Amino acid sequence: MSPAAGSEVQVDVEGRTLTISNLDKVLYPRTGTTKGEVLHYYAQVSPVLLPHLKDRAVTRIRWPHGVEGSSFFEKNAPPGTPSWVRTVEVSTTGSRTGTGDGTLRFPVCDDLATLTWLANLAALELHVHQWTVDAKGVPRNPDRVVIDLDPGEPAGLHECAQVALLVRDALAARDLTCTPVLSGSKGLHLYAPVPASGRGSLDSDGTTTLAKEVAEALQKAHPDLVTATMTKAKRPGKVFLDWSQNSGSKTTISPYSLRGRERPTVAAPLTWDEVEEGAEDELALEQLTMDEVLERVAELGDVFEA
């Protein structure tokens, strides 16, 4: 029998004792998905999710009353954070996190116990920077470039897939490979690793400049399909290439994180064969739910290549 709503249970997760509450609470009313099912998803997907979170400060979006209720961003580790949760203090005055005074104390989700703790807080979405921290918590230069493909209606995933192939070619011309990821919302994300030889020379400003150059070049070459302009009035029917998420202060949804949408969709990595099919067939691609992603992982493992 499932615990009643409002009840608490204690569970052992890799040697840590956690108090889990409200397992029967519905977080996605449209599908009836409960907090217990969200916890189960994160536990099952953790072998492929945790490598994408490793050594990255994590910003959370929490929905304590479910996705039809209010949500809030959380950067600092909240009051009551267990002493065993790894945290890093990052200056808010440097290029990593933008301008400001003082520091932010981010949690880092390197293990299943921390992931379970976050999920119990209804932290459905886990967002990370494009940089990691070292063993002492000091931010490194970014190890990847991300370009967010955001379609303006009536454009959708079909157009995103077409543009993703253009971005892939543009990055290949710069000797960079990339991996496609369904955003779990409307579009696609493309991740390109910064070569190890370049990690010491490209800071967040450098990767932002690189992404912006790619976006603006494609806007010039394909003005009917691509825009690099943030103004929403210029996006209808086009795919916006958001290069700004490479800023040291900005974050992107982690691969395999849930989204706080009507359905429990996931930021799901794809193969290029799937993207190519989506570019040809407008019905071939759709955002995937957590159950579909668990089936993919069981069959294919992590298809994230970059």
TrEMBL record:
One Pfam family, short name: LigD_Prim-Pol
DNA ligase D polymerase domain mapped to chain residues: 34-304
Source superkingdom: Bacteria
CDD domains with a match to the protein in the record: MtLigD_Pol_like
Name of this protein: DNA ligase D polymerase domain-containing protein
